[in-house]
Amino acid sequence: MRQKDYTTVNTLIDVYSEDLLTPEDFDQLLNASSTSTIMDVLADTKYRMEERYLNDGEKIDRVLMERLVQLYRFAYAESPVPEIVDIFGARYMYHNLKVMLKAAVLDVDHEYLRIPIGRFGYDDLQHIAQTRESTRLPQPMIDLINEVHLQAEDYHSSEAIDIGMDMAYFDHIKWVSELHGSKDTDAIVQAIIEFYNITTIIRAERQQQTRSFMIEAYTSQGLFSLDDYVEIVQNKDYQRWYNAFSELPFNQAINDAIDRLAAGKMAIGELEKLKEIYIDELFREKRFSNTLGLNMLSYIHAREMEVTNLRLVLVGRVNSLSREQIVERMRPVYGK
Q1: Could you read off the pLDDT of 189-212 as tens digits, one per residue?
Q2: What is the rounded distance in angstroms from the CA atom of residue 12 to the CA atom of residue 141?
Q3: pLDDT over 50 at 1, yes or no
Q4: Which of 30, 96, 110, 191 has its CA 20 to 30 A from that of 181?
Q5: Which of 333, 326, 198, 200 lies closest to 277 in space, CA to CA?
Q6: By CB neighbour count within 10 A (0-12 exposed, 13-18 middle, 19+ buried), where does 198 fall?
Q7: Could you tell me if 99 and 74 are in contact, meaning their C-beta atoms sit under 8 angstroms apart?
Q8: How far, in Å, CA of 331 to CA of 226, rounded?
Q9: How far apart are CA 135 and CA 127, in angstroms?
Q10: Is residue 56 classed as helix, strand or coil in its secondary structure?
Q11: From CA 20, how far away is CA 335, in angstroms rounded?
């Protein structure tokens, strides 16, 4: 795929990126004393909604999810290599497959949990979940899904489906980057995997889980063996872990966070935020790269973080969270 194939879509992304909410916008939202003020801030954005929605967390979530759906429809439709969009979008497909496999194997109906995002639609995913066959999905994806299907039938367990599909997602994005990506997309994929693995092992150690649980719950797509991950966590040698995959120059904020992690002063939930900070910095570092599709991934990530932040601010307000409680959970803000 030649760079010129991305010229039109990159121009669109540049135009759409002008609409990203700025730090000033978020300050106004955080300081808003009334719904009318929030309405004013959101009036000319993609997130305009009826004033009555602003006092209802479920309605806020519904509007924000609709914006994510629109984002991925644009990304999959316009990207010359839509497979690259899977690096972020496939997690929704594998979430839907969890729901569908539980219905097919366990007769558990959670259809309301489906999310209309992904390169393949409900019908395609439903068909393979029920029949283990597909003429539309790529063979590696079929193989991943069927492996989980067999495990689900053997164990007849909801947990087996959840863990199996999580592992399939990591295998999927690794495969996509190797087949259609580049060194830059590999770096994003590896960061996603590394943060998942280290979080999983930290949680397992704190909960005193068995080794067999760790074997099932971590992905072998990481840079370390299970024994090495356990050693890193037990010895709090997180700098070794970070140095193995980081492609950033020295970053004081991230290194301070790694030190906090080593000192036992970081909650598990904060690792998800640290992952997003790392990926944000990675996109900024590679912003002049000519890697095909990187601009699209950067834009998707920016919008995803924007939606996350808006949910924190708007739903946090409904739930009477303080400004400090909201700000400490917020992700990077891309708007200039």
Answers
A1: 999 999 999 999 999 999 999 999
A2: 30
A3: no
A4: 96
A5: 333
A6: buried
A7: no
A8: 30
A9: 10
A10: coil
A11: 5
